[in-house]
């Protein structure tokens, strides 16, 4: 399949890896994969950049302030500018339904800002602020890690790249290590990761649990639900699939 120009509009940064299989496969097919992240700390950005490099993704940051994301004109202009500069064929972003249930800060406001920005990018909005950029409409949007997917992408051939890229996110792995240790009992952790009690650093703990979790999720979408792939990423396409004829 011929590569496309794909743009991920993410919030925190780990999304680059979470849908990194689809992004990496697009690059392997001759396409270009971009990611623009709203909230990523100065400490995290070099790690996200390194993960993106592993996957072949070109990075950009809009540098919103944590806790202060709002649906203002200025915020929407940032998203519009990214879309018009990249001119993607496909946009990937977070699942609106999931964002409202997720208690990560800023996700709800970010979701509305992203969708408003996508909608306005193809209209006569803020042309005076960016006269060098023409409106650009997006024909296809996919929501990543959705509650109700209608699409799965085989990422078996880039699975090792996803694992390598996730391992680079040291701050996230350290945070996850502390989180999982408080969220689960010692017994559950041992069942999930045999030998967990022998791990000494937060990074090792977070990375070990993420490996188990990632494999379970990707196998579930790839094989367990009467699928045909070893590992798959789940997406929800916005709107109907428009086909010239049925495909198998």
Largest sheet: 7 strands, mixed
- Would you count the extended β strands for me? 7
Written as H for each helix and E for each strand, in order along the chain, the element string is: EHHEHEHEHHEEHHHHE
Helices and strands: which structural class? alpha/beta
Distance between the termini: 15 Å
> Can you tell me the CATH topology of the largest domain?
Rossmann fold
Give the CATH superfamily of the largest domain.
LmbE-like
State the name of the first-level CATH class of the largest domain.
Alpha Beta
CATH architecture of the largest domain: 3-Layer(aba) Sandwich
What are the low-pLDDT stretches, counting only 5+ consecutive residues below 50?
none
Mean pLDDT: 95
- Beta content: 5-15%
* Number of structurally distinct domains: 2
Task: Determine the number of helices (DSSP H or I, runs of at least 4 residues).
Answer: 10
Strand order of the largest sheet: 3-2-1-4-5-7-6
Helical proportion?
40-55%
Q: What does the overall shape look like?
A: globular
Q: What does the radius of gyration come to?
A: 19 Å
Tell me about this structure.
The structure is a single chain. This protein has 248 residues and is α/β, with parallel strands linked by helices. The chain has 2 domains: 5-152, 3-Layer(aba) Sandwich (Rossmann fold), CATH 3.40.50.10320; 156-230, no CATH class. It has 10 helices and 7 strands. A 7-stranded mixed sheet has the order 3-2-1-4-5-7-6, sandwiched between helices. It is globular. The model has no long low-confidence stretch (mean pLDDT 95).
């Amino acid at each position: 399949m011929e590569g496309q120009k794909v743009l991920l509009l993410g919030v925190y940064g780990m999304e680059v890896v979470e849908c990194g299989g689809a992004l990496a496969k697009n690059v392997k097919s001759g396409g270009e994969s971009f990611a623009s992240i709203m909230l990523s700390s100065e400490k995290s950005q070099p790690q996200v950049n390194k993960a993106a490099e592993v996957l072949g993704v070109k990075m950009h940051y809009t540098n919103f302030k944590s806790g202060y994301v709002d649906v203002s004109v200025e915020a929407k202009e940032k998203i519009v500018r990214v879309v018009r500069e990249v001119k993607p064929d496909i946009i990937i972003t977070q699942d609106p339904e999931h964002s409202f249930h997720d208690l990560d800060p800023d996700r709800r406001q970010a979701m509305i800002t992203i969708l408003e920005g996508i909608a306005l990018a193809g209209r006569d909005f803020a042309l005076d602020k960016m006269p060098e950029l023409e409106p650009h409409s997006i024909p296809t949007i996919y929501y990543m890690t959705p509650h109700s997917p209608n699409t799965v992408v085989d990422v078996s051939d880039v699975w090792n790249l996803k694992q390598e890229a996730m391992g680079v996110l040291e701050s996230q792995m350290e945070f996850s290590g502390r989180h999982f240790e408080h969220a689960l009992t010692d017994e559950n952790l041992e069942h999930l990761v045999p030998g967990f009690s022998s791990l000494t650093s937060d990074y090792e703990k977070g990375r070990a649990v993420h490996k188990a979790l990632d494999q379970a999720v990707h196998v579930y979408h790839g094989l367990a639900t009467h699928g045909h792939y070893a590992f798959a990423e789940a997406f929800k396409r916005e709107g109907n699939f428009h086909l010239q004829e049925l495909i198998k």
